[in-house]
Amino acid sequence: MKNQFFKGIYQRHGAFNLYLLAFLLSISACLSLGILTLFSIFAEPLQKIMGYSQSTINNTIIFQVLGLNLFTPLSGYIADAEGIWILSIISFFGYFIGFNTIIMSINNNLDKKYIYLSFFIIGCSHISFLFGCLLNSAKTLGRYYRTMAISTPNMMVAFSSYIQIQILKKYFQPIDNDIVNVKSNFISLLKFFMITLMISSFISFFACKLTDIIEYYEFDEEQINTSNHESFLSFETSPLLIGAGTVLHSPENSIIGSPRSWYDGENSPMLNLDDELSLLSSESINQSVPTSDGILRIMSSFHELTPYKIKVRNFLSDPLMYPLLMCCLISIGSTEFFIANLNTILTNLNLSNYLDSNLQLLSICSTITRFIIMIFTDYICTRFQISRITIFTLSVIICGISHIYLSSIPVTSINFQFVMIMNSILNSAVFTLFPAILASIYGIEILGTTWGLCSSSSIFGNMCLNLMYSIDFSSHCVGNYSNDLVICSTLTFFISGSCLIFFGFIVFLLRQRYLHKSSAFF
Protein backbone atom coordinates (compact mmCIF):
# COMPACT_ATOMS: atom_id res chain seq x y z
CA MET A 1 0.00 0.00 0.00
CA LYS A 2 2.79 2.39 0.96
CA ASN A 3 4.75 1.53 -2.20
CA GLN A 4 1.71 2.28 -4.35
CA PHE A 5 1.27 5.63 -2.60
CA PHE A 6 4.86 6.74 -3.30
CA LYS A 7 4.75 5.37 -6.83
CA GLY A 8 1.57 7.34 -7.49
CA ILE A 9 3.25 10.55 -6.28
CA TYR A 10 6.26 9.85 -8.51
CA GLN A 11 4.09 9.21 -11.58
CA ARG A 12 1.89 12.24 -10.88
CA HIS A 13 4.64 14.83 -10.36
CA GLY A 14 7.68 13.42 -12.19
CA ALA A 15 11.30 13.10 -11.12
CA PHE A 16 12.35 16.73 -11.70
CA ASN A 17 9.59 18.29 -9.59
CA LEU A 18 10.24 15.89 -6.72
CA TYR A 19 14.00 16.43 -6.94
CA LEU A 20 13.33 20.17 -6.82
CA LEU A 21 11.20 19.72 -3.69
CA ALA A 22 13.96 17.68 -2.00
CA PHE A 23 16.47 20.38 -2.96
CA LEU A 24 14.29 23.16 -1.53
CA LEU A 25 13.84 21.25 1.72
CA SER A 26 17.61 20.73 2.05
CA ILE A 27 18.50 24.38 1.49
CA SER A 28 15.67 25.52 3.78
CA ALA A 29 17.11 23.36 6.54
CA CYS A 30 20.42 25.25 6.16
CA LEU A 31 18.70 28.42 7.41
CA SER A 32 19.51 27.36 10.98
CA LEU A 33 23.25 26.94 10.34
CA GLY A 34 24.29 30.57 10.75
CA ILE A 35 25.71 29.45 14.10
CA LEU A 36 28.73 28.15 12.14
CA THR A 37 30.03 31.71 11.83
CA LEU A 38 28.74 33.05 15.14
CA PHE A 39 31.04 31.50 17.74
CA SER A 40 31.95 35.01 18.92
CA ILE A 41 28.53 35.32 20.57
CA PHE A 42 29.49 32.46 22.93
CA ALA A 43 32.87 33.89 23.95
CA GLU A 44 31.75 36.82 26.10
CA PRO A 45 29.01 34.95 28.07
CA LEU A 46 31.41 32.08 28.80
CA GLN A 47 34.00 34.55 30.04
CA LYS A 48 31.48 36.36 32.28
CA ILE A 49 29.52 33.37 33.59
CA MET A 50 32.27 30.75 33.85
CA GLY A 51 35.26 33.08 34.27
CA TYR A 52 37.12 31.59 31.32
CA SER A 53 40.41 33.07 30.14
CA GLN A 54 41.21 33.77 26.48
CA SER A 55 43.29 30.57 26.44
CA THR A 56 40.25 28.52 27.54
CA ILE A 57 38.09 30.21 24.88
CA ASN A 58 40.68 29.31 22.23
CA ASN A 59 40.77 25.73 23.51
CA THR A 60 36.97 25.61 23.20
CA ILE A 61 37.27 26.77 19.59
CA ILE A 62 39.88 24.09 18.97
CA PHE A 63 37.58 21.34 20.27
CA GLN A 64 34.74 22.54 18.04
CA VAL A 65 37.15 22.59 15.10
CA LEU A 66 38.26 19.06 16.00
CA GLY A 67 34.65 17.91 15.86
CA LEU A 68 34.02 19.73 12.58
CA ASN A 69 37.09 18.36 10.85
CA LEU A 70 37.73 14.95 12.36
CA PHE A 71 34.17 13.90 11.59
CA THR A 72 34.24 15.31 8.05
CA PRO A 73 35.91 12.33 6.28
CA LEU A 74 33.66 9.92 8.16
CA SER A 75 30.60 11.96 7.15
CA GLY A 76 31.69 11.81 3.52
CA TYR A 77 32.18 8.05 3.69
CA ILE A 78 28.83 7.46 5.45
CA ALA A 79 27.04 9.57 2.83
CA ASP A 80 28.73 7.92 -0.16
CA ALA A 81 28.66 4.33 1.08
CA GLU A 82 25.66 4.04 3.40
CA GLY A 83 23.24 6.91 2.77
CA ILE A 84 23.02 10.66 3.25
CA TRP A 85 19.97 10.40 5.54
CA ILE A 86 22.13 8.86 8.31
CA LEU A 87 23.95 12.20 8.70
CA SER A 88 20.68 13.94 9.59
CA ILE A 89 20.00 11.38 12.35
CA ILE A 90 23.52 11.88 13.75
CA SER A 91 23.13 15.67 13.82
CA PHE A 92 19.68 15.47 15.46
CA PHE A 93 20.93 13.51 18.47
CA GLY A 94 24.28 15.34 18.53
CA TYR A 95 22.60 18.73 18.94
CA PHE A 96 20.38 17.42 21.72
CA ILE A 97 23.34 16.00 23.66
CA GLY A 98 25.77 18.86 22.97
CA PHE A 99 23.57 21.82 23.93
CA ASN A 100 22.13 20.09 26.99
CA THR A 101 25.69 19.37 28.18
CA ILE A 102 26.54 23.09 27.94
CA ILE A 103 23.38 24.04 29.86
CA MET A 104 24.14 21.44 32.52
CA SER A 105 27.73 22.70 32.82
CA ILE A 106 26.58 26.31 33.30
CA ASN A 107 23.84 25.46 35.82
CA ASN A 108 26.12 23.24 37.90
CA ASN A 109 29.42 25.08 37.30
CA LEU A 110 31.07 21.90 36.00
CA ASP A 111 34.68 21.58 34.92
CA LYS A 112 35.63 23.14 31.56
CA LYS A 113 36.28 19.69 30.08
CA TYR A 114 32.49 19.27 29.77
CA ILE A 115 32.33 22.47 27.74
CA TYR A 116 35.12 21.11 25.53
CA LEU A 117 33.22 17.85 25.07
CA SER A 118 29.95 19.59 24.26
CA PHE A 119 31.48 21.84 21.60
CA PHE A 120 33.26 18.82 20.11
CA ILE A 121 29.89 17.03 19.81
CA ILE A 122 28.27 20.16 18.35
CA GLY A 123 31.11 20.42 15.84
CA CYS A 124 30.46 16.82 14.72
CA SER A 125 26.75 17.63 14.44
CA HIS A 126 27.40 20.76 12.38
CA ILE A 127 29.43 18.95 9.76
CA SER A 128 27.00 16.02 9.61
CA PHE A 129 24.09 18.40 9.09
CA LEU A 130 25.85 20.62 6.52
CA PHE A 131 27.22 17.63 4.60
CA GLY A 132 23.79 16.03 4.51
CA CYS A 133 22.21 19.18 3.06
CA LEU A 134 25.04 19.87 0.61
CA LEU A 135 25.28 16.33 -0.76
CA ASN A 136 21.53 15.94 -1.06
CA SER A 137 21.40 19.24 -2.97
CA ALA A 138 24.12 17.99 -5.31
CA LYS A 139 22.32 14.68 -5.71
CA THR A 140 18.99 16.31 -6.62
CA LEU A 141 19.26 19.56 -8.54
CA GLY A 142 22.95 18.83 -9.21
CA ARG A 143 21.76 16.45 -11.93
CA TYR A 144 20.67 19.51 -13.88
CA TYR A 145 22.56 22.56 -12.52
CA ARG A 146 25.80 21.51 -10.83
CA THR A 147 27.33 24.78 -9.63
CA MET A 148 24.07 26.27 -8.38
CA ALA A 149 23.12 23.08 -6.54
CA ILE A 150 26.47 22.83 -4.74
CA SER A 151 26.68 26.55 -3.98
CA THR A 152 23.17 27.20 -2.68
CA PRO A 153 23.43 25.44 0.73
CA ASN A 154 26.53 27.48 1.60
CA MET A 155 24.79 30.67 0.49
CA MET A 156 21.87 29.82 2.79
CA VAL A 157 24.32 29.39 5.69
CA ALA A 158 25.63 32.93 5.11
CA PHE A 159 22.09 34.30 4.81
CA SER A 160 21.15 32.41 7.97
CA SER A 161 23.87 34.16 9.97
CA TYR A 162 22.37 37.54 9.06
CA ILE A 163 18.85 36.40 10.03
CA GLN A 164 20.06 34.94 13.32
CA ILE A 165 22.00 38.10 14.21
CA GLN A 166 18.79 40.10 13.83
CA ILE A 167 16.88 37.59 15.98
CA LEU A 168 19.57 37.65 18.67
CA LYS A 169 19.64 41.46 18.74
CA LYS A 170 15.86 41.65 19.15
CA TYR A 171 15.12 38.80 21.55
CA PHE A 172 18.35 37.70 23.27
CA GLN A 173 20.15 40.87 24.36
CA PRO A 174 20.62 40.98 28.18
CA ILE A 175 18.93 43.92 29.86
CA ASP A 176 22.05 44.71 31.90
CA ASN A 177 25.37 43.16 32.86
CA ASP A 178 24.01 41.48 35.99
CA ILE A 179 25.46 37.94 36.06
CA VAL A 180 22.06 36.33 36.76
CA ASN A 181 20.51 38.12 33.79
CA VAL A 182 23.44 37.24 31.52
CA LYS A 183 23.22 33.58 32.56
CA SER A 184 19.46 33.35 32.01
CA ASN A 185 19.75 35.06 28.63
CA PHE A 186 22.58 32.76 27.53
CA ILE A 187 20.67 29.59 28.45
CA SER A 188 17.66 30.85 26.48
CA LEU A 189 19.98 31.45 23.54
CA LEU A 190 21.36 27.90 23.75
CA LYS A 191 17.83 26.44 23.82
CA PHE A 192 16.89 28.53 20.79
CA PHE A 193 19.81 27.12 18.78
CA MET A 194 19.16 23.57 19.97
CA ILE A 195 15.47 23.57 19.00
CA THR A 196 15.95 25.20 15.60
CA LEU A 197 18.84 22.90 14.68
CA MET A 198 16.97 19.75 15.74
CA ILE A 199 13.91 20.75 13.69
CA SER A 200 16.14 21.51 10.71
CA SER A 201 17.86 18.12 11.07
CA PHE A 202 14.46 16.44 10.81
CA ILE A 203 13.64 18.46 7.67
CA SER A 204 16.98 17.41 6.18
CA PHE A 205 16.22 13.77 7.00
CA PHE A 206 12.87 13.99 5.20
CA ALA A 207 14.55 15.58 2.15
CA CYS A 208 17.16 12.79 1.97
CA LYS A 209 14.56 10.03 2.23
CA LEU A 210 12.49 11.72 -0.48
CA THR A 211 15.54 11.66 -2.76
CA ASP A 212 16.04 7.94 -2.07
CA ILE A 213 12.40 7.22 -2.94
CA ILE A 214 12.65 9.18 -6.22
CA GLU A 215 15.82 7.35 -7.20
CA TYR A 216 14.19 3.99 -6.47
CA TYR A 217 11.27 4.59 -8.82
CA GLU A 218 13.45 6.39 -11.36
CA PHE A 219 15.75 3.37 -11.53
CA ASP A 220 12.73 1.10 -12.03
CA GLU A 221 11.59 3.29 -14.89
CA GLU A 222 15.05 3.32 -16.47
CA GLN A 223 15.20 -0.46 -16.29
CA ILE A 224 11.96 -0.67 -18.27
CA ASN A 225 13.05 1.97 -20.79
CA THR A 226 16.39 0.28 -21.45
CA SER A 227 15.00 -3.24 -21.83
CA ASN A 228 14.94 -2.73 -25.60
CA HIS A 229 18.71 -2.35 -25.60
CA GLU A 230 19.52 -5.75 -24.11
CA SER A 231 20.85 -6.99 -27.44
CA PHE A 232 23.80 -4.63 -26.96
CA LEU A 233 24.71 -6.23 -23.65
CA SER A 234 25.82 -9.65 -24.91
CA PHE A 235 28.22 -11.61 -22.76
CA GLU A 236 30.53 -11.72 -25.78
CA THR A 237 30.88 -7.92 -25.84
CA SER A 238 34.32 -6.56 -24.95
CA PRO A 239 34.79 -4.43 -21.80
CA LEU A 240 35.40 -1.25 -23.79
CA LEU A 241 32.22 -1.72 -25.83
CA ILE A 242 30.26 -2.29 -22.63
CA GLY A 243 31.65 0.98 -21.28
CA ALA A 244 30.76 2.80 -24.48
CA GLY A 245 27.24 1.38 -24.33
CA THR A 246 26.92 2.65 -20.77
CA VAL A 247 27.87 6.16 -21.82
CA LEU A 248 25.67 6.15 -24.93
CA HIS A 249 22.63 4.98 -22.98
CA SER A 250 23.03 7.39 -20.05
CA PRO A 251 19.73 8.62 -18.65
CA GLU A 252 18.50 11.96 -19.95
CA ASN A 253 18.63 13.50 -16.49
CA SER A 254 22.36 13.02 -16.01
CA ILE A 255 24.46 16.04 -15.15
CA ILE A 256 24.75 18.41 -18.10
CA GLY A 257 28.17 18.11 -19.65
CA SER A 258 29.08 14.99 -17.72
CA PRO A 259 30.48 12.17 -19.90
CA ARG A 260 29.38 9.41 -17.53
CA SER A 261 26.24 7.57 -16.59
CA TRP A 262 24.20 7.93 -13.41
CA TYR A 263 24.06 4.21 -12.53
CA ASP A 264 24.22 4.10 -8.78
CA GLY A 265 24.33 0.38 -8.06
CA GLU A 266 27.43 -0.26 -5.98
CA ASN A 267 27.58 -3.89 -7.03
CA SER A 268 26.99 -3.33 -10.70
CA PRO A 269 29.40 -5.46 -12.79
CA MET A 270 29.65 -2.71 -15.41
CA LEU A 271 32.16 0.12 -15.15
CA ASN A 272 31.71 3.27 -17.14
CA LEU A 273 34.21 4.24 -19.83
CA ASP A 274 36.47 6.50 -17.80
CA ASP A 275 36.87 3.83 -15.08
CA GLU A 276 37.83 1.15 -17.62
CA LEU A 277 40.28 3.44 -19.35
CA SER A 278 41.77 4.21 -15.96
CA LEU A 279 42.25 0.50 -15.35
CA LEU A 280 43.72 0.01 -18.81
CA SER A 281 46.14 2.91 -18.36
CA SER A 282 47.32 1.49 -15.02
CA GLU A 283 47.89 -1.87 -16.69
CA SER A 284 49.81 -0.31 -19.54
CA ILE A 285 52.41 1.31 -17.34
CA ASN A 286 54.57 -1.79 -17.72
CA GLN A 287 53.16 -2.86 -21.10
CA SER A 288 52.81 -0.46 -24.02
CA VAL A 289 50.27 -2.81 -25.66
CA PRO A 290 47.84 -4.70 -23.40
CA THR A 291 48.01 -8.46 -23.84
CA SER A 292 45.13 -10.88 -23.44
CA ASP A 293 46.48 -11.71 -19.98
CA GLY A 294 46.37 -8.03 -19.10
CA ILE A 295 42.75 -7.78 -20.20
CA LEU A 296 41.91 -10.87 -18.13
CA ARG A 297 43.55 -9.31 -15.09
CA ILE A 298 41.54 -6.16 -15.64
CA MET A 299 38.34 -8.18 -15.92
CA SER A 300 39.12 -10.12 -12.76
CA SER A 301 39.72 -6.87 -10.89
CA PHE A 302 36.14 -5.76 -11.63
CA HIS A 303 34.95 -7.95 -8.76
CA GLU A 304 37.55 -6.47 -6.39
CA LEU A 305 37.28 -2.76 -7.23
CA THR A 306 33.98 -0.90 -7.50
CA PRO A 307 33.86 2.36 -9.48
CA TYR A 308 33.75 4.24 -6.16
CA LYS A 309 36.98 2.61 -4.94
CA ILE A 310 38.71 3.19 -8.27
CA LYS A 311 37.88 6.88 -8.27
CA VAL A 312 38.95 7.34 -4.65
CA ARG A 313 42.21 5.51 -5.39
CA ASN A 314 42.87 7.78 -8.38
CA PHE A 315 42.13 10.84 -6.25
CA LEU A 316 44.50 9.81 -3.45
CA SER A 317 47.29 8.87 -5.86
CA ASP A 318 47.07 12.11 -7.85
CA PRO A 319 50.09 14.35 -6.97
CA LEU A 320 48.14 17.44 -8.06
CA MET A 321 45.65 16.80 -5.27
CA TYR A 322 48.11 17.78 -2.54
CA PRO A 323 48.65 21.47 -3.48
CA LEU A 324 44.84 21.79 -3.56
CA LEU A 325 44.66 20.12 -0.16
CA MET A 326 47.19 22.52 1.35
CA CYS A 327 45.47 25.54 -0.17
CA CYS A 328 42.14 24.37 1.29
CA LEU A 329 43.83 23.71 4.65
CA ILE A 330 45.14 27.23 5.05
CA SER A 331 42.10 28.94 3.48
CA ILE A 332 39.51 27.42 5.81
CA GLY A 333 41.88 27.42 8.78
CA SER A 334 42.80 31.10 8.49
CA THR A 335 39.33 32.48 7.83
CA GLU A 336 37.59 30.40 10.51
CA PHE A 337 40.32 31.29 13.00
CA PHE A 338 39.78 34.96 12.19
CA ILE A 339 35.97 34.77 12.50
CA ALA A 340 36.02 32.73 15.72
CA ASN A 341 38.37 35.24 17.40
CA LEU A 342 36.63 38.31 16.04
CA ASN A 343 35.54 39.56 19.47
CA THR A 344 39.09 39.45 20.85
CA ILE A 345 40.60 41.07 17.73
CA LEU A 346 38.11 43.95 17.92
CA THR A 347 38.92 44.45 21.61
CA ASN A 348 42.61 44.58 20.70
CA LEU A 349 41.76 47.37 18.21
CA ASN A 350 39.59 49.23 20.77
CA LEU A 351 36.49 48.37 18.70
CA SER A 352 34.78 45.98 21.13
CA ASN A 353 31.47 47.85 20.83
CA TYR A 354 31.32 47.08 17.11
CA LEU A 355 30.99 43.27 17.29
CA ASP A 356 27.34 43.23 16.14
CA SER A 357 27.97 45.56 13.21
CA ASN A 358 31.00 43.56 12.08
CA LEU A 359 29.08 40.30 12.34
CA GLN A 360 26.37 41.84 10.18
CA LEU A 361 28.99 42.97 7.67
CA LEU A 362 30.39 39.43 7.67
CA SER A 363 27.00 37.82 7.05
CA ILE A 364 25.95 40.34 4.37
CA CYS A 365 29.24 40.03 2.51
CA SER A 366 29.13 36.21 2.75
CA THR A 367 25.56 36.10 1.44
CA ILE A 368 26.31 38.42 -1.49
CA THR A 369 29.53 36.57 -2.36
CA ARG A 370 27.88 33.15 -2.34
CA PHE A 371 24.91 34.46 -4.32
CA ILE A 372 27.21 35.93 -6.99
CA ILE A 373 29.21 32.69 -7.17
CA MET A 374 26.05 30.61 -7.39
CA ILE A 375 24.38 32.68 -10.14
CA PHE A 376 27.21 34.07 -12.24
CA THR A 377 30.17 31.69 -11.98
CA ASP A 378 29.17 29.41 -14.86
CA TYR A 379 28.47 32.41 -17.14
CA ILE A 380 31.69 34.25 -16.24
CA CYS A 381 33.84 31.14 -16.66
CA THR A 382 32.34 30.42 -20.09
CA ARG A 383 32.02 34.00 -21.36
CA PHE A 384 35.40 35.34 -20.27
CA GLN A 385 37.38 32.06 -20.22
CA ILE A 386 38.26 32.43 -16.54
CA SER A 387 38.42 29.20 -14.58
CA ARG A 388 36.91 28.67 -11.15
CA ILE A 389 40.31 27.77 -9.82
CA THR A 390 41.69 31.15 -10.94
CA ILE A 391 38.91 32.99 -9.13
CA PHE A 392 39.50 30.89 -6.02
CA THR A 393 43.29 31.36 -5.90
CA LEU A 394 43.00 35.12 -6.41
CA SER A 395 40.67 35.33 -3.40
CA VAL A 396 43.21 33.28 -1.38
CA ILE A 397 46.08 35.63 -2.28
CA ILE A 398 44.07 38.81 -1.58
CA CYS A 399 42.94 37.49 1.80
CA GLY A 400 46.58 36.67 2.61
CA ILE A 401 47.48 40.28 1.85
CA SER A 402 44.75 41.45 4.25
CA HIS A 403 46.23 39.33 7.08
CA ILE A 404 49.70 40.78 6.54
CA TYR A 405 48.10 44.22 6.36
CA LEU A 406 46.42 43.62 9.74
CA SER A 407 49.74 42.56 11.27
CA SER A 408 51.78 45.48 9.91
CA ILE A 409 49.68 48.66 9.83
CA PRO A 410 49.44 50.95 12.89
CA VAL A 411 46.33 50.26 14.95
CA THR A 412 44.90 53.74 14.45
CA SER A 413 45.20 53.44 10.65
CA ILE A 414 43.76 49.95 10.13
CA ASN A 415 40.70 49.73 7.89
CA PHE A 416 39.14 46.76 9.61
CA GLN A 417 36.20 46.58 7.20
CA PHE A 418 38.67 45.73 4.42
CA VAL A 419 40.11 42.83 6.44
CA MET A 420 36.62 41.62 7.36
CA ILE A 421 35.39 41.68 3.76
CA MET A 422 38.45 39.84 2.41
CA ASN A 423 38.09 37.06 5.01
CA SER A 424 34.37 36.82 4.30
CA ILE A 425 34.95 36.52 0.55
CA LEU A 426 37.57 33.78 0.93
CA ASN A 427 35.49 31.85 3.46
CA SER A 428 32.54 32.00 1.07
CA ALA A 429 34.66 31.11 -1.96
CA VAL A 430 36.28 28.05 -0.39
CA PHE A 431 32.96 26.56 0.74
CA THR A 432 31.20 27.43 -2.53
CA LEU A 433 33.78 27.08 -5.30
CA PHE A 434 36.02 24.37 -3.92
CA PRO A 435 33.41 21.54 -3.91
CA ALA A 436 32.53 22.45 -7.52
CA ILE A 437 36.23 22.34 -8.46
CA LEU A 438 36.61 18.89 -6.88
CA ALA A 439 33.44 17.64 -8.59
CA SER A 440 34.76 18.82 -11.97
CA ILE A 441 38.17 17.17 -11.55
CA TYR A 442 37.39 13.96 -9.66
CA GLY A 443 33.65 13.40 -10.21
CA ILE A 444 30.50 14.26 -8.29
CA GLU A 445 29.88 10.64 -7.24
CA ILE A 446 32.81 10.79 -4.76
CA LEU A 447 32.27 14.43 -3.76
CA GLY A 448 31.46 13.41 -0.20
CA THR A 449 34.84 11.70 0.12
CA THR A 450 36.96 14.28 -1.74
CA TRP A 451 35.38 17.35 -0.15
CA GLY A 452 35.33 15.56 3.21
CA LEU A 453 39.07 14.97 3.08
CA CYS A 454 39.91 18.47 1.87
CA SER A 455 37.66 20.34 4.28
CA SER A 456 38.80 18.21 7.22
CA SER A 457 42.39 19.15 6.45
CA SER A 458 41.61 22.63 7.77
CA ILE A 459 41.80 21.20 11.27
CA PHE A 460 45.56 21.61 11.17
CA GLY A 461 45.46 25.20 9.98
CA ASN A 462 42.71 26.24 12.38
CA MET A 463 44.08 24.36 15.37
CA CYS A 464 47.67 25.54 14.85
CA LEU A 465 46.61 29.16 14.37
CA ASN A 466 44.40 29.09 17.48
CA LEU A 467 47.23 27.58 19.55
CA MET A 468 49.64 30.16 18.19
CA TYR A 469 47.17 32.97 18.82
CA SER A 470 46.65 31.79 22.39
CA ILE A 471 50.42 31.89 23.04
CA ASP A 472 50.81 35.15 21.12
CA PHE A 473 47.94 36.74 23.07
CA SER A 474 49.30 35.64 26.45
CA SER A 475 52.79 36.93 25.60
CA HIS A 476 52.00 40.26 23.97
CA CYS A 477 48.38 41.25 24.67
CA VAL A 478 47.73 40.52 28.35
CA GLY A 479 48.57 43.65 30.31
CA ASN A 480 49.24 45.57 27.10
CA TYR A 481 45.99 45.24 25.20
CA SER A 482 46.46 48.21 22.90
CA ASN A 483 49.67 48.90 21.03
CA ASP A 484 50.14 52.26 19.34
CA LEU A 485 52.36 50.73 16.66
CA VAL A 486 50.76 47.48 15.51
CA ILE A 487 48.19 44.94 16.68
CA CYS A 488 49.58 42.98 19.63
CA SER A 489 49.08 39.57 17.96
CA THR A 490 51.33 40.40 15.00
CA LEU A 491 53.02 37.01 14.58
CA THR A 492 49.84 34.93 14.11
CA PHE A 493 48.41 37.11 11.36
CA PHE A 494 51.73 37.51 9.58
CA ILE A 495 52.18 33.72 9.40
CA SER A 496 48.59 33.06 8.28
CA GLY A 497 48.89 35.77 5.60
CA SER A 498 52.23 34.45 4.32
CA CYS A 499 50.87 30.87 4.08
CA LEU A 500 47.77 32.04 2.20
CA ILE A 501 49.85 33.94 -0.36
CA PHE A 502 52.35 31.07 -0.80
CA PHE A 503 49.86 28.23 -1.35
CA GLY A 504 47.49 30.41 -3.36
CA PHE A 505 50.35 31.29 -5.70
CA ILE A 506 51.39 27.61 -6.06
CA VAL A 507 47.89 26.49 -7.08
CA PHE A 508 47.60 29.50 -9.42
CA LEU A 509 50.78 28.42 -11.23
CA LEU A 510 49.42 24.86 -11.57
CA ARG A 511 45.96 25.91 -12.75
CA GLN A 512 46.50 24.76 -16.37
CA ARG A 513 47.27 21.23 -15.20
CA TYR A 514 44.02 21.14 -13.24
CA LEU A 515 42.15 22.39 -16.30
CA HIS A 516 43.55 19.53 -18.37
CA LYS A 517 42.32 17.03 -15.78
CA SER A 518 38.81 18.37 -15.87
CA SER A 519 36.34 17.24 -18.52
CA ALA A 520 34.77 20.70 -18.54
CA PHE A 521 36.14 24.22 -18.19
CA PHE A 522 35.75 25.09 -14.53
TrEMBL record:
Gene3D superfamilies: MFS general substrate transporter like domains (1.20.1250.20). It comes from the Eukaryota. Keywords: Membrane, Transmembrane, Transmembrane helix. The chain crosses the membrane at residues 20-43, 49-71, 83-103, 115-135, 185-208, 320-339, 389-406, 418-444, 451-471, 491-510. The keyword Translocase does not apply. SUPFAM superfamilies: MFS general substrate transporter. This is Nodulin-like domain-containing protein.
